[in-house]
Structure prediction request, 145 residues.
Amino acid sequence: MLASGFCLLVLTAVTIGRAAGATAIVHLGLDGNAKVNHVSAGDSVGVGPPVLTVHVGDSIVFVNDDAVAHHTATGLVGATKFGEPRWTQAVLKPFGDIGSQPWSSGDIAPGARSAPLLATTPGTFLYGCFFHYSAGMRGEIIVEP
Prediction:
């Protein structure tokens, strides 16, 4: 919701048009980013692009664009819509690959980048920020063969 009381909904999808093994960048940030994007799983704020399409074998790096806030990109295993995650503080450390098993970028400090996370399994995978999930910081990764 923008300060004036208007809500802006935009559908955005990005496809990486390179051979497998490419690296895609996802920007995370709430500073000055009040734009609400509507994706198939629900609303997304502070994630750019909110929907990312990659191929098996590609890597994804998450970048924290904020000056103060910490962020994570943490998988919502098995989810088809954004709901209430049941994460523990274990997601503050990086683990896993993007696929059907649990994964997380770990805590990404302001201005920092995550280690690359490998897309290993075709499918649609939802994720969100451990710290700002209720603020709408969540996105969708589509992994194609």
